[in-house]
Structure formats: structure tokens, C-alpha cells
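Work Package 4 report. The design task specified in the project plan requires that, given a folded chain encoded as C-alpha cells, an amino acid be chosen for each position. We show below one input record used in the internal validation round.
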């Protein structure tokens, strides 16, 4: 199903996106938020006296001004009534040479009261990437753009070493891979988008309420988890979700290769976190299906948490690959303990996936689209499982080594 939600589905998101039933009537929506200047050369602080207005963003990236405007108060806050819309909205604050933007997901500005995330350089780049993507026919939603852009990518855009258009193109390719893989696995793509819109609505509210950097960080991490859970819950199985997430991650690796160094690491970090959450959940589900003891499941959950945290802190591809290797080693040790096979036997099963992995890497390098990467990943999973089954008669081992077989496939 198309990643663009139907009009009916958009309207269904209103309850999730609106923060209350405030003063906005059926023809208007009450928008509020705050504007900060977090440029690297200045201290983070509120921007007073900035002009604030809003516009809807159409499918082609064109913007249409919504009625209503205001200026920020001394603490950088604003609140005004704007004409309602079911489309995504970009709220813009300007003062002299200063500009900041923030996105509101489709359906959330249909009525009621809606709060933006605090406007920063990062939210400004998120808006730019979302609009640039729409202008090139992207399937990206607001939540997709917000997940993809982090402070590192925004800093490179601000420095002129990267462009919003290039980031939008890389995001688009990764989403095409996810869409194709979801379709191949029989997942519900509309459910994914609905849940991700809800997760972004929750993020906006949490960030606005955050009184510290650590609180904002926790809100961002909760959004990452919710974004991943939206994918997982809409697939036919945990293993299917892992395969979809890995297809997206591998497409990100392929199509972020020409980004600036920091933006590339940023893009791969976010994609690898998504894949780590989904793959970890799938590994745990496989052990649970075998009847593994809770202590073993808990150990695997802890290993997943360690991996995700290490990826969040990573500043290089090498650090990301090392974190994945450590997780894989833990999983292999748990396979040995659970099945009674030797370390050599489990390693041999993993080694049996190598030929399929080599073929996948060649296909990924040659891929011109995200769809092509997804097709190559599907071929890998099929061939790798066949080879692993020939190496071991233990189904748990065959299933799990195939799931972790693409970890670290960067560069």
C-alpha cells in the first residue's frame, strides 16, 4: 500500500496529533511552540520578537500560507490561531537573518491545539529535507525526515558541506527499500505510517515539555524506539520486521555513500539503530519460540540495549561495526549455550552465509534504486537460509545466523 496515507487515514490521525481540544474551532487550529538560537557560535537561548507563520506542505513540496501569524515573546514562545489543514505543516520563525522551521505531521493541524517541537537548527534542516523530498516526489513522511536528520547532519548543512536535497535523496532511497521489503513480506505499510505519525506527535509534546538536554535526549530515544516499533508491529513476524529493517539499513549504506563524512555516519547510525532494534527483537523471538529460559532472553535483551546505546554514541563507521560485532558474538555464545552445539559448529553455520553475503554486497554496490537493494536483500535471506540449513539441522541456529549475517556490511 502507498506510503502516502489516504485522506481518511490522515483525518484519523487528528486525535493523535492534536494535543488538546483548545481554542481552535473546526476552521482553525491553535499553534504554539518556542524558538531558540542554537547556532554553534552562540549560546542556546530564546529568540524574542521573531515573526512566526505557518504553511501547509503539498505532495509536490509546494507550500500554501495558512492564515494567522504572531511574534515571539521574550522567552521565545508563540501561540496563534491558523487556518486548519489535513496536510503536513511547516511553522517558520524569522528575525533579520535568523530563520528556523519546525514540522507538524499530516492531520495534526486539522483542529484543536498543536504544539511544535522547539525550533532549532536541527528542526530547520528536518523541514528543509522534508520539503526537498516532496519536491522530488519523495514518499517520506514528517516522522521519516525527523528520524533521518540529527544534529550532525544539520551542522553539515549549516556549514555548507552538505545539502538538504542530497539528504532527501538518500532518505528517499532508504524508504523505497523499506516499502518494497514491507510489500514483499506482506506487512501493513499504512499501519507503519499511522503509528509513526503518532510517535512524532508524542515527540513534539515531549520536546516542548523538556526542561533539560537530558530530557530532550530521552524524548529523542523514545521516538527512535517508537518509530522502530511501528515497523515491527506492522509486519507478519519479528523476523520479517528484521528483514525489512535490514533492507532499509543496507539501502542507507548504499545511497549515503556520497554524503559528507559526518552526514554519512549520521545516516548510517540512525539506520543501524532501527535495524538493531528490529533484529534484536527477532533474535529474542526465535529463542522464545524454542522455549529458552527467561534468563537467556533477558541476556539477549541486555545485549540489544548495549548495541543500541553504542550505536547512538558512535562517531565513526568503525565504531558502529565494532558494536555490531560485539552483539553478534554475544548471540553466538547464547546459541552455543542454548543448543549444546560447539562454538565451531555455530561459527560454521554463520560461515555458510558468507557466499550469499558476498553476492549481496556486489548487488548492493550495483543497485541504482532502493527497490533494487531490497530485492538483493531478499535474495540474500533466501540463499543464506538455504546454505545455513545445509550446514546445521538446528533450526534456531540457522534462523539466527541468517538474521545477523549482514551486520557490519558497511562501506
Amino acid at each position: 500500500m502507498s506510503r502516502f496515507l489516504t485522506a481518511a487515514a490522515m483525518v484519523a490521525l487528528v486525535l493523535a496529533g492534536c494535543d488538546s481540544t483548545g481554542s481552535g474551532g473546526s476552521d482553525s487550529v491553535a499553534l504554539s511552540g518556542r524558538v531558540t538560537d542554537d547556532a554553534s557560535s552562540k549560546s542556546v537561548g530564546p529568540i524574542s520578537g521573531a515573526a512566526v507563520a505557518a504553511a501547509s506542505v503539498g505532495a509536490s513540496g509546494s507550500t500554501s500560507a495558512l492564515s494567522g501569524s504572531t511574534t515571539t515573546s521574550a522567552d521565545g514562545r508563540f501561540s496563534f490561531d491558523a487556518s486548519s489543514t489535513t496536510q503536513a505543516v511547516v511553522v517558520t520563525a524569522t528575525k533579520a537573518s535568523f530563520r528556523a522551521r519546525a514540522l507538524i505531521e499530516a492531520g495534526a493541524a486539522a483542529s484543536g491545539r498543536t504544539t511544535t517541537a522547539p525550533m532549532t537548527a536541527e528542526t530547520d534542516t528536518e523541514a528543509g529535507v522534508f520539503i526537498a523530498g516532496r519536491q522530488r516526489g519523495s514518499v517520506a513522511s514528517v516522522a521519516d525526515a525527523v528520524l533521518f536528520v540529527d544534529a550532525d547532519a544539520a551542522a553539515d548543512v549549516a556549514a555548507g558541506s552538505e545539502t538538504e536535497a542530497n539528504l532527501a535523496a538518500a532518505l528517499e532511497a532508504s524508504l523505497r527499500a523499506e516499502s518494497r521489503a514491507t510489500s514483499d513480506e506482506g506487512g501493513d505499510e499504512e499501519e507503519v505510517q499511522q503509528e509513526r505519525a503518532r510517535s512524532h506527535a508524542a515527540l513534539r509534546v515531549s520536546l516542548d515539555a523538556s526542561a533539560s538536554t537530558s530530557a530532550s535526549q530521552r524524548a529523542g530515544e523514545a521516538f527512535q524506539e517508537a518509530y522502530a516499533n511501528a515497523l515491527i508491529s506492522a509486519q507478519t513476524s519479528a523476523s520479517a520486521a528484521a528483514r525489512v529493517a535490514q533492507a532499509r539499513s543496507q539501502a542507507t549504506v548504499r545511497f549515503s555513500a556520497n554524503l559528507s563524512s559526518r552526514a554519512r555516519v549520521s545516516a548510517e547510525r540512525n539506520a543501524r539503530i532501527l535495524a538493531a532494534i528490529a533484529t534484536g527483537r527477532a533474535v529474542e523471538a526465535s529463542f522464545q519460540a524454542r522455549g529458552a529460559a527467561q534468563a537467556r532472553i533477558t541476556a539477549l535483551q541486555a545485549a540489544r540495549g548495549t548495541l543500541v546505546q553504542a550505536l547512538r554514541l558512535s562517531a565513526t563507521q568503525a565504531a558502529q561495526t565494532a558494536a555490531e560485532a560485539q552483539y553478534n558474538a554475544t548471540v553466538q555464545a547464547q546459541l552455543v549455550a542454548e543448543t549444546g552445539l560447539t562454538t565451531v559448529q555455530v561459527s560454521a553455520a554463520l560461515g555458510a552465509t558468507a557466499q550469499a553475503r558476498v553476492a549481496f554486497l556486489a548487488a548492493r554496490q550495483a543497485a541504482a534504486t532502493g527497490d533494487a537493494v531490497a530485492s538483493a536483500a531478499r535474495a540474500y535471506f533466501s540463499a543464506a537460509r538455504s546454505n545455513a540449513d545445509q550446514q546445521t539441522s538446528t533450526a534456531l541456529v540457522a534462523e539466527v545466523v541468517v538474521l545477523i549475517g549482514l551486520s557490519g556490511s558497511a562501506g
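Residues 235-404 form one domain. Validation will be extended to a larger panel in the next phase.
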